[in-house]
Structure formats: C-alpha cells, structure tokens
Amino acid sequence: MRSFIYFSVLLFGLASCEKGEPEDSPLTGSWKLVENSYFQGVKERIQSAGCVYHDTLLFGMGFLSLTQDLIQNDLWLYTEEGWNRLPDFPGQKRIDPLVCMSQGGVFVTQGYALPSQAFKDIWRYDLRTGVWDSLPYEFPGQGRTGAISFELEGKLYLGAGVSIRKTGMLSDMYIFDPQQGWNSFFTERQAYSTVFKWEGEISVSY
C-alpha cells in the first residue's frame, strides 16, 4: 500500500450577525492529495516519531517488531519538493523516542529499550553541516513513554507521559535550551497527552 500525505483543507465561513444574535461560523473540510508525497521509507512501523516545523514535516524511527534489528533509526524531512532522508540517527536504537526541530536543527531524545532501559541523552542534527552530535546534557526527569514535546521561541518543551520504571503517570514538564541545557517547568498534564501549536500559542489536551 502506498503512503501519501493528505492535508485537510478547512474552509471557514464568515457570517455577519446583529448585536445580540449568536455568531455562526460553519466549518467544512475536504482532503487533498499532496504532490510528491509518496513515502520511500519503510511504512509499516509502530511508535514512529514526528513533528511539524513551519512548512517542514519530520518523520521516522519507530519499529517493525520489538527485536533490536527491526528498530528503525531513519529520519525523513518532507517539504513541497518531496521527501529527503537524513543520515541515520547514530545513537542507540530505541522505542518511542521524541523528535523536535528548532533553529536549524533536529533533536532526538527519550525513548527506551526492553525490558526497562530509559534513555536520557539528547542528540542534535545540524541541517547546515549535516552532522549529528550528542549534546552534553542529560535529561533530569524520569525516563518516559507517551510523552509530549513541542518547540516554542527556539526552546524545546518536554513532559507528561508514563514512567519507564512503572511508577505511574507523570505530570512534570521541562524546557531545553540548546545553549544552556534542561530546566524544570511544572505543569499539570497527564499521560498520553496531545499538543497543538497555533499562532504562537500552545494547547495541550488529555
């Protein structure tokens, strides 16, 4: 089965209203096949990672089965020109990693290996030089799965999820500055949250 990207084209109807009348904003949607969107990598994967940064989509990693040789280390960028494969992630293979993009770089952190090895390292791929580097900052919180992450004003935010050590759901949040490392930032969110970024504001649902 071929894998394509579809975007939902949302059409917002603007309606005028008299004072005191409820405002009406009907919403309709349709799917559009995006050109040059046939994905050339392995498609049947589980717990893959991805994010959207401006007009670029980052996707990859995940696994085909829980055996080490079928855990994927590939990452792909999609722009209007199509898919472009980055050099494979050089760190240890992992399940359920988190990926983000910011300031000309791709960041990979978190994830785990069976039975309960949690990863707290963070790696950066420089899109200008084409080089992967392991950054000298260890994540200060618990290793986790099902976490959320997003980028805002050049910094990465990471938190929530479920502890790899099976201590339950986590409600902490951390900020990563590529120049200074990690700092704690508390917020009351729960496991398997979903994050949305719209016009510079962040919303988290759970």
Q: C-alpha Rg, in Å?
A: 19 Å
Number of helical regions: 0
Mean pLDDT across all amino acids: 80
Q: Give me the secondary-structure category.
A: mainly beta
Task: Please give the largest β-sheet.
Answer: 4 strands, antiparallel
Distance between the termini: 32 Å
Uncertain segments of ≥5 residues (pLDDT<50)?
Answer: 1-22, 189-193
* SSE topology string: EEEEEEEEEEEEEEEEEEEE
Strand order of the largest sheet: 3-4-5-6
In terms of DSSP E residues, the strand content is: 35-45%
Please report the total strand number as a whole number: 20
The percent range for helix content is: under 10%
Broad shape: globular
Give me the secondary-structure topology.
Blueprint: E1 6-12, E2 27-33, E3 49-53, E4 56-60, E5 75-79, E6 82-85, E7 98-102, E8 105-109, E9 112-113, E10 117-118, E11 122-126, E12 131-134, E13 144-145, E14 148-152, E15 155-159, E16 162-163, E17 173-177, E18 181-184, E19 194-198, E20 201-205
Antiparallel strand pairs: 1-2, 3-4, 4-5, 5-6, 7-8, 8-11, 9-10, 11-12, 13-16, 14-15, 15-17, 17-18, 19-20
Labels describing this entry:
mainly beta, globular, 20 strands, 206 residues, 0% helix
Descriptive account of the structure:
0% of the residues lie in helices and 43% in strands. It has no helices and 20 strands. A four-stranded antiparallel β-sheet has the order 3-4-5-6, with no helix packed on it. It has strands spanning 6-12, 27-33, 49-53, 56-60, 75-79, 82-85, 98-102, 105-109, 112-113, 117-118, 122-126, 131-134, 144-145, 148-152, 155-159, 162-163, 173-177, 181-184, 194-198, 201-205. With 206 residues, it is mainly beta.
